[in-house]
Write a structure and sequence with these properties.
By secondary structure, this protein is mostly helical. The protein has one domain. It is built from three helices and no strands. The chain starts with a helix and ends with a helix. GO terms for molecular function: proton-transporting ATP synthase activity, rotational mechanism; proton-transporting ATPase activity, rotational mechanism. This is ATP synthase subunit b. It is a single-pass membrane protein. Keywords: ATP synthesis, Cell membrane, CF(0), Coiled coil, Hydrogen ion transport, Ion transport, Membrane, Transmembrane, Transmembrane helix, Transport.
Length: 171
């Protein structure tokens, strides 16, 4: 049987070099673990913690944003309702104001119409007095011409009777 040691020597394996390499590897491993892996691991852990914290804050911000959106929508609805109420009240006030103005205008129209009717009546009465006065003069002239008397001799009572008959004949 061939010895394992001999086979390893034939392929160029040396136990002393291998042992030295193993010791070197363990020293390098210890140094890397102490001075490189721990700080790098700590940096990676800190970075992961910051990322986790950022993700948590982002989730909280999303929740807060959703709450703010809900509040904003609620406020918009309240504002819409308030503005609808205000519009309704403004329309009611405008309608009442319009009704009041229409009533005032109608009352003013009635007053103006009554004044116009009074003025018309007065003008008619004045016209009738003027016509009666002129009719009295005309009747007097006609009587004078008919009777061929002097105007002073014509009876005033007769003239008034003729004018009254003329006036009642019109009505």
């Amino acid at each position: 049987m061939v010895n394992l040691y001999e086979i390893l020597q034939k392929i160029g394996f040396d136990w002393q070099v291998a042992l030295a390499n193993l010791v070197n590897f363990l020293i390098i491993l210890f140094l890397l673990k102490k001075f490189a892996f721990k700080p790098i691991g700590k940096l990676i852990k800190d970075r992961q913690d910051k990322i986790s914290e950022g993700l948590q804050k982002a989730k909280e911000a999303d929740v807060r944003l959703a709450q703010v959106d809900a509040i904003a929508i609620l406020r918009l609805k309240e504002t819409d309702q308030k503005s609808a109420v205000m519009m309704s009240q403004a329309q009611e006030r405008a309608k009442k104001l319009e009704e009041g103005l229409v009533k005032k205008a109608q009352e003013r129209q009635r007053q103006l119409l009554a004044q116009a009717e009074d003025q018309h009546k007065k003008a008619q009465e004045e016209s009738q007095r003027q016509i009666l006065k002129e009719a009295g003069v005309l009747v007097k002239e006609m009587i004078v011409k008919t009777v061929e008397l002097k105007p002073e001799a014509v009876d005033e009572a007769l003239i008034e009777k003729a004018v009254l008959q003329l006036h009642h004949g019109k009505h």
